[in-house]
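Incident log, support desk, overnight shift.

02:14 A customer reports that sequence design results differ from what the structure should imply. Their input is reproduced verbatim below. On-call engineer (initials T.W.) acknowledged and began investigating.
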């Protein structure tokens, strides 16, 4: 069975087509500048097919999806002979609110629930729904599956997800911690349990998804017990451009100071903060490493703050779970930056974490990086959210 995986953003759409017989990617690509002008890069992953990389007109997501499907079946760039070969489409959806604890076959009711979560994910959920509806239009009859970033975290106990604010905001407006990157935390925690030879029951894993957006999760008995992102992805550790945790009074202070709106202040906290703001250099950790090498003190401070906050969450989650068997690093920074991993774990020897510095000198592959005599095992595990989405879609259509 072939499964198409779609990750629709407000003006972009990423896709991968999987052959689920061997879980290989047979084509992937990116539509950009949807609603502005439009560009498609389509890369067939089979021998002899050229890459398509050209401007195209994409007034809406519908035209973008139509162009992708056209390329997937075209004689020159195609990888399938007809659309009938595509058994299902899996969609990444940011926010599933409290309704969804697992991936769902898209129905009118599911679409309504995604719509109901627009206020919780105002940038992503409308785009995710546009992606779903564009596929429904272009591929009638093909099952569409929604895979929610929030679903894995729905097992958190109330003491982890509640905010200490008047209860009516939870009861009437569902204001609470949801958490994100759930597909990634689910995949790498399950992989950790597998490679460590543990039973899910009784296991205690801390997963560190460190990329442009970063979040950590405490995974107890194979289920999410706590996570660092909140109602929105703004909470938690400092990120590429997001502030992470701060005193909420900062919002009023800066809003008054700038004479701007709360919404403008939140845009600043989402898009112009984090390591970008502290360093004044970049949101990209490779640029920060280069700046530190040239003696840039603010770039060093930005990295120190990031590493310190990750360590703080690791410590708090070990305390919350009553110990930890394994720590996992994943995503762009977690998979590639040996120096970040080392700094995040430095000083945790007291709780049984002993790094193997040589093993830690690895990038982008599954690797145990703790010493043989380390009580806590530490792993780098590359995440693969698209594969999880494809597997969920396959499971649901075959059920
Ligand atoms: P992601 O959001 O998971 O795609 O991660 C993207 C981020 O990974 C980029 O912004 C980079 O900061 C970071 N990254 C990628 N490669 C490296 C590397 N070799 N060293 C440090 N950071 C890296």
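02:41 Re-run completed on a clean worker. Output:
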């Amino acid at each position: 069975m072939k499964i198409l995986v779609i990750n629709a953003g407000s003006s972009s759409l990423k896709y991968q087509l999987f052959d689920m017989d061997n879980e290989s990617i047979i084509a992937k690509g990116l539509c950009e500048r949807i609603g502005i002008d439009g560009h498609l890069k389509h890369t067939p992953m089979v021998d002899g097919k050229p890459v398509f990389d050209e401007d195209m007109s994409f007034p809406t997501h519908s035209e973008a999806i139509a162009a992708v499907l056209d390329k997937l079946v075209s004689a020159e760039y195609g990888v399938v002979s007809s659309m009938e070969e595509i058994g299902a489409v899996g969609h990444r959806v940011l926010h599933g609110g409290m309704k969804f604890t697992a991936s769902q076959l898209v129905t009118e009711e599911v679409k309504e629930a995604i719509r109901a979560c627009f206020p919780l994910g105002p940038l992503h959920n409308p785009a995710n729904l546009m992606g779903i509806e564009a596929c429904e239009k272009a591929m009638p009859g093909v099952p569409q599956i929604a895979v929610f970033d929030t679903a894995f975290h729905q097992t958190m106990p109330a003491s982890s997800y509640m905010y200490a604010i008047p209860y009516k905001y939870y009861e009437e407006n569902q204001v609470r911690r949801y958490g994100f990157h759930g597909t990634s935390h689910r995949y790498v925690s399950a992989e950790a349990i597998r490679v460590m030879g543990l039973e899910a029951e009784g296991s205690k894993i801390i997963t560190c998804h460190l990329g442009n957006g970063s979040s950590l999760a405490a995974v107890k008995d194979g289920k999410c017990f706590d996570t660092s992102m909140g109602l929105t992805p703004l909470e938690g550790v400092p990120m590429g451009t997001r502030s992470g945790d701060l005193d909420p009074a900062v919002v009023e202070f800066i809003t008054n100071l700038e004479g701007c709106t709360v919404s403008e202040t939140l845009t600043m906290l989402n898009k112009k903060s984090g390591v970008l703001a502290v360093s004044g250099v970049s949101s990209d950790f490779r640029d920060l490493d280069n700046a530190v090498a040239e003696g840039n003190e603010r770039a060093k401070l930005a990295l120190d703050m990031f590493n310190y906050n990750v360590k703080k969450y690791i410590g708090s989650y070990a305390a919350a779970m009553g110990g930890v068997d394994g720590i996992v690093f994943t995503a762009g920074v977690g998979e590639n930056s040996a120096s970040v991993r080392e700094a995040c774990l430095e000083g945790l020897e007291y709780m049984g974490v002993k790094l193997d510095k040589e093993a830690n000198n690895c990038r982008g592959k599954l690797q145990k990086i703790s010493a043989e005599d380390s009580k806590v095992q530490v792993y780098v595990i590359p995440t693969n959210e698209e594969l999880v989405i494809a597997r969920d879609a396959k499971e649901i259509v075959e059920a």
